[in-house]
Amino acid sequence: MKKIQEFIRDIHDFPKPGIVFKDITPLLSDSEAMKECADALYDLINDKKIDKVVGIESRGFFFGTLLAEKLKAGFIPVRKPNKLPHNTISETYALEYGSDALEMHTDAIKRGERVLIHDDVLATGGTASAVCKLVERLGGKIVQCNFLIELEFLNGKDKIPKYPMASLLKY
Ligand code: AMP
Fold first, then answer.
1. Residue 166: is it exposed, middle or buried by C-beta count within 10 angstroms (0-12/13-18/19+)?
2. Domain boundaries, position 128
3. Is 96 one of the catalytic residues?
């Protein structure tokens, strides 16, 4: 049994001074740790039925696709502006460092579909909150917001109070 926490590397002052970046690449590079992490994230969902897993660019894609496969659900990428080729809807959001917008294909989710949102890190919650808005605009039902890492001191949870939330590692 590997300790997932030991595969998360702190990078100080990246991408800006004062930020401690949680680097998950050591976790991704170890097949056993990666499998254990995917299994543990899956356990957080607790047998709930999910139609679509929405993964947030870009680090939400790694475990998001593994979760979708386990849940027998489809995978929907949410991407930075002008990356998705078809018709999109867009939401702007604030980051722990800067601000940006996120887009989703308009036909990604059908009205009433049960959605799991996944990302690697919940920091201030601005990103997750914007993605919840995208999913709701398309009529999706958010079953859970699911994170590998929660930076509890940033209170990101408070930005997504309406939705069930689960995280594997808390700092
Ligand atoms: P936020 O909108 O502040 O919750 O930021 C969450 C998004 O930014 C996620 O997509 C993360 O990948 C990234 N992020 C924010 N802070 C960190 C951090 N300290 N380490 C790694 N990624 C981060």
1. middle
2. 47-170
3. yes
State the Cα torsion 116-120-70-4 to the nearest 10°.
Answer: -140
Is 24 inside any structural domain?
Answer: no
Contact 119 CB / ligand 1 (< 6 Å) = yes
Q: Per the domain annotation, does 2 fall within a domain?
A: no
Is the pTM here over 0.70, yes or no? yes
Per DSSP, the chain holds a count of helices (H) and strands (E) of: 4, 9
pLDDT digits (tens, 9 = 90+) for 128-154: 999 999 999 999 999 999 999 999 999
Place of tokens 């990302």: 119
In this structure, what CATH number is given to the domain that contains residue 112?
A: 3.40.50.2020
Percent of the chain with pLDDT over 70: 98
Active-site option among 57, 96, 136, 137: 96
Is 1 inside a domain boundary? no
CB atoms within 10 A of CB 49: 10
**Cα 19 to ligand 1 centroid, rounded to whole Å:** 10
Catalytic, 114? Answer no
Question: To which residue do tokens 């929660």 refer?
Answer: 150
Tell me the CA distances in angstroms from 66 to 7, 88, 92, 95, 171, one per residue in order. Answer: 18, 24, 27, 25, 24
Give the total number of structural domains in the chain.
Answer: 1
